[in-house]
Write a structure and sequence with these properties.
367 residues; alpha/beta; Rossmann fold; 3 domains; 5-stranded parallel β-sheet; 4-stranded parallel β-sheet
């Protein structure tokens, strides 16, 4: 425990803040006039807000929240597909709690549940295996969303359903993977990102090797954890990388959980069940190879194919700026609906719904 307590040591945190200011002052002639660091992890977003880290840094260092919240990037068309499927009384939609309140084009899954649709909230997709066994006359559809952190357990569920020959299970798949999202952000002409704070949970799966795209574009990134010392150490390390010539591209500051090659067993499982595909990120559009779809051997578990449903088109609620927030073009408090029409009790966009959403973080912790 003492080893982990060090990451919450207030004295060490203050020393890191001082080191950040000192390094910036000494090297500012070698640094960009404005430094933009982006985190692409919902947990980082919440912890940076909770800890007030933005206010501890030099004014020239800006921390932006990127598309790291899986619920936030799930397109409204996906919610519409789920709503369409659950209209059939024989179907039961099984979902994580965050997703149930995300607005579709008009209503959310929570609204449909209140109208009597069979929608059940679970904490692990493995639970649907018992549900399907106990209620063989019911069709169970799992909303498979999330980045690489949640993909392995969903892949395991698909594999076990296939092994057990369970026919009354299917998966509405909207998994996304982080590296192609980073590439889209780097190549976006409207953005100028100095470097990335890379997600600890995702990195535990894909490892340091998963960020080859940063090497290709010579953009620095630091893999870091979620404690105060983790985050501040990551910012200091990223600042150091920006002064280096040539720049290092990926540093792992979370070695207690992240290895160079990641979780190889999890990666093997993912690759055996899924294959890459182009996919939509809400508010951003189609990103090449940022999605996953079930491989041919497991297509019978694909809810879209099983029920012949695919709703096209992506619509944001009128006035909602979640797309710009997710890309880091604006901060949540710059959205005209923020704290007015859009609040956690009455969210307009997904970034205010999720417990990892940047708008929810700004609402709760300030800016």
């Amino acid at each position: 425990m003492q080893e982990y307590d060090a990451f919450y040591d207030s004295k060490l945190a203050k020393e890191l803040v001082a080191s950040i200011h000192r390094l910036f002052s000494e090297k500012k002639n070698f640094l960009p006039k404005k430094i933009t660091m982006m985190e692409v992890c919902g947990t980082h977003t919440m912890e940076i807000g909770r800890l007030g880290i933005r206010h501890l840094l030099p004014a020239e260092i800006s921390l932006l929240s990127g598309p790291g919240c899986p619920v936030c990037v799930t397109p409204s068309s996906y919610i519409e597909e789920a709503l369409e499927l659950v209209k059939n009384s024989k179907n039961c939609l099984v979902t994580f709690g965050d997703l149930i309140h995300v607005p579709g084009k008009k209503v959310s899954l929570a609204f449909a549940k209140a109208q009597g649709c069979d929608i059940r909230v679970i904490t692990s997709p493995l639970q649907i295996l018992e549900m399907a066994k106990d209620e063989p006359s019911k069709e169970f559809i799992f909303t498979s969303i999330g980045f690489e952190t949640t993909v392995p357990v969903t892949a395991k569920t698909v594999f076990m359903a296939h092994q057990k020959k369970l026919k009354n299970i299917s998966f509405l798949v909207a998994h996304r993977v982080v590296p192609p999202v980073l590439q889209a952000l780097i190549e976006d002409p409207d953005l100028s990102i100095s470097g990335f704070l890379l997600p600890g949970h995702v990195s535990a799966v894909i490892g340091e090797d998963g960020y080859q795209i940063l090497h290709e574009h010579c953009v620095p990134g630091v893999i870091t954890g979620f404690a105060p010392v983790d985050i501040l150490g990551g910012i200091l390390s990223l600042l150091e990388m920006l002064t280096e010539r040539p720049k290092a591209c990926v540093k792992n500051m979370y070695t207690r959980f992240v290895s160079p090659h990641g979780n190889t067993k999890a990666l093997e499982l993912i690759h055996s069940i899924y294959e890459p595909c182009d996919a939509v990120l809400r508010g951003i559009g189609i990103v090449k190879l940022c999605g996953l779809k079930l491989r041919k051997n497991y297509e019978s578990y694909d809810a879209q194919k099983k029920y012949g449903i695919e709703i096209q088109g992506e619509e944001m609620p009128v006035g909602c700026s979640c797309g710009q927030v997710l890309k880091g073009l604006i901060r949540p408090n710059e959205c005209p609906l923020f704290k007015k029409a859009c609040t956690p009790d009455h969210p307009v966009g997904p970034c205010m719904v999720s417990t990892e959403g940047s708008c929810a973080a700004y609402f709760r912790y300030g800016y």
